[in-house]
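Case study.
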Amino acid sequence: MTTTELTPAAARRDLRRLMALMTGAEKHGPAATSTLDALWVLYDRVLRVTPETAEAPGRDRFLLSKGHGPMAYYAVLAAKGFVPEEWLPGFGSYASPLGHHPDRTLVPGVEIGSGSLGHGLPLAVGTALGLRAQGLTDPRVWVLVGDAELDEGSNHEAIAFAGGTGLDTLHVLVVDNSSASHARPGGIAARFEAAGWSVETVDGRDHAALHAAYTAPHPGRPLAVVARVEPKNA
Amino acid sequence: MDTMRDRFISTTTRLLDEDPRLALVLAEISRDGFAPALERHPDRAINVGIREQLLIGTGAGLALTGIRPIVHTFSAFLVERPFEQVKLDLGHQGAGAVLVGAGASYDWPAGGFTHMAPGDVALLDTLDGWTVHVPGHPDEAEALLRSASAGDDRVYLRLSLQSNAAARPSAAAGAGFTTVREGARGPVVVAVGPVLDDVLAATEGLDATVLYAATVRPFDARGLRAAVGDGGRAADVVLVEPYLAGTSTAAANDALSDVPHRVLGLGVARRELRRYGRMEEHIAAHGLDARSLRSSITAFARPS
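After joint prediction, the assembly is written out as follows.
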């Protein structure tokens, strides 16, 4: 998926319309939409996966680790045709495949079930290793985590391993809405840099900056993109 | 005789050479034994370091790409420490793996309770869809490992230093309960994995039927039902398991839900022993040596 016929403004309007189908609200607090722009640019301009290739071995993988507040994710999946728009109004209901945390076995295009924090990045490490072991060196693996989610020790295990082994098909998108309770000395970027990652820090609302960060070369190192958005409680 | 863990290392090393679909994931434990495999297959033999949550997550991620992962460390660090990863990264994702645990309930008593996992099978019992193999001999361990590595499901292979003198072909084939000794009216004694030799010694000369299985989940309800038969009186069943006492009591009760029965679950005590020493001393302390078993079984069984 490389192009869109929508302008950024039109795309944003359409995504907000799709999200409103789930929440019934035209407006959302910053936290609910914190991932929206970062996800859209990723799906619209970077990830090489379509509804037709959602099961293809050579597809790029996107793993939503931060499964909380997945409305933006579902809206993007609907906009790109992975799930029908008609599913959105049933969000969270008994008969709906769309839960308040996603389930990979219920939603086309969803790579992992998530909700419990700290699982996506280790799964992404295994996914990147599994693709490499099969000679699939082209697909890239992306995983989205929240800044507070980085508190989970499992993520630290994955960050240290991926950096130490130079797992350069692995990409982490950290959506930073300043929701962690305890500030990380040196900030999020320092944590990844210390572990040997390549790091880009950008305005998480700036589509051009996001795209530039997503596509920045990082030979021999995994890439972390820290996308800063409005503080959760602002 | 080599140990189950030795056999696991040699067999997995060969399997990695033969089957490009297989991968091995380690967290330092058994690294030295696997040095040739790590050297020969850098893409499929992976040591993540001392990181057990990552160990399970990595195995599950490999499985999501179509690889068959064999994931190994001590049982305490494989099942108990990263239990939520076992539950979610494998179960909830619908991914499979072969988890191979070493250490069992008291393989290294001098190491103390930190390296004991008597609750591993009971913990996995809270999850759906797990096959649990408790081999009683290295040959059984090898056969069960080979069949598990050829599948796609979720398998736990529980290796131990405790072993029976001889392998049982039916157990190696992954069968449920098979009759090792036939009694007339006495209790049905179920021996799981490496306790069989002690159970056979304990029931020598008693009127008891002895069943054996190295595969305890799924629980062979049909096999147990067939063994208790229809003797016109309540069935007496004794379960002897080398892990937490009573782990399979509920399964046995479910199997006999429409048959009058009594069940005695023998195994490792829940109370922490806080002793070091040797494995044999722990087996005796938990009442799992032949003499203690005979005493427990005769006290439980009614005179025929």
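Observations recorded in class. Residues 175-301 of chain B form a domain with the Rossmann fold fold (CATH 3.40.50.920). DSSP finds 13 helices and twelve strands in chain B. We will return to this complex in the next lecture.
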